[in-house]
What does this fold into?
Amino acid sequence: MTTRVIIVDDQAMVRAGFAALLAAQSDIDVVGEAPDGAQGVELSRRTHPDVVLMDVRMPEMDGLEAARRLLEPAPGVTHRPRVLMLTTFDVDDYVYEALRAGASGFLLKDAPPADLIAAVRVVASGDALLAPSVTRRLIADFAKQRPAVRGKHALRLKGLTGRETEVLTLVARGQSNGEIAQTLVLAEQTVKTHVSRVLTKLDLRDRAQAVVFAYESGLVAPGE
It folds into this structure.
């Protein structure tokens, strides 16, 4: 199955480089490029990509606002792509807010080409790109600065079972389903079921939002 991708970045050379790299993959089809967030949203509405590579800082409309419009579309708009944020900064509050809005992860622009290709495939498969330690550090750093939401999120945690809470804790610590299965001595399919129930009960889009929620609720403390 081919993954449809669009690239939204204000630097033409960056767009061209990423497009050439991704288009060379037999399972990835680059269906468009845009130089700013506003045009990126419009392009996504027309082409219905599976994944949007979205630069953070752009003129006209930045990547955060564009990501919000794609992930929280207006009534009547049914298409919601996966969004992978691109940044030159390894700690950036725009990226954190994008994760809260439902972006599936972020990647540094100077990452090796193989990492970009792998990231697109991971995000397209429905997983969140949370493996790089910098992502977890970013979430932890900014969660510490937002104590106001803790009480509200903590109340929502009470709707989870004990096992679901354990699973959410391990998701927040960056463990894959397979690793969680080993830790809790469960079948991997059982872990997938628990993760799905956690996302449904907490009204979260994917694992990226689950990690943000776990930190902001105080379930997982920064530095653990």
